[in-house]
Amino acid sequence: PSPQSEDFLRRAGIRMLRDVWTDTGPLLLGGRLDGRRSKRLSEHDFLALAGDGLPGVVLDHSPSEGEKLVKAGAELVLSGHTHGGQTFPGNLLGRLLPFPMYGRRDYPGGCQIVTSGVGIWGFPLRLGVRSEIAVLELRGRG
Fold first, then answer.
1. Single pTM value for the model
2. Quick check: 11 pLDDT over 90?
3. Which among 4, 14, 115, 128 has most CB atoms closer than 10 A?
């Protein structure tokens, strides 16, 4: 985000998770650096920072590494970035990608959820893709 956005988030008491984990009690929540703009840890090094014990939920802006993260030990990966394809035919062509552009994908050991979000990229239009705010209720084991 821009320095102005970061300043706003900091003043609002929102902590940016950049290749770090935070213990929320029943869950460990990890946020990854955006791989397009920064050099970030590999999925194995990132997950090693979490240690053992609590279920791990990873926030990763782009869905492209969700399967790798689950294979490395993440139980749930939450992503966005694609806007669900944003317009026709992107919403259909995105189905050819090796990762989900939208929805839930299960892998052995965990899953990934990708939301289309509420934003746009480039031009102010969505066609064939709904805006959404996803509300998830997460519970730790036991």
1. 0.82
2. yes
3. 115
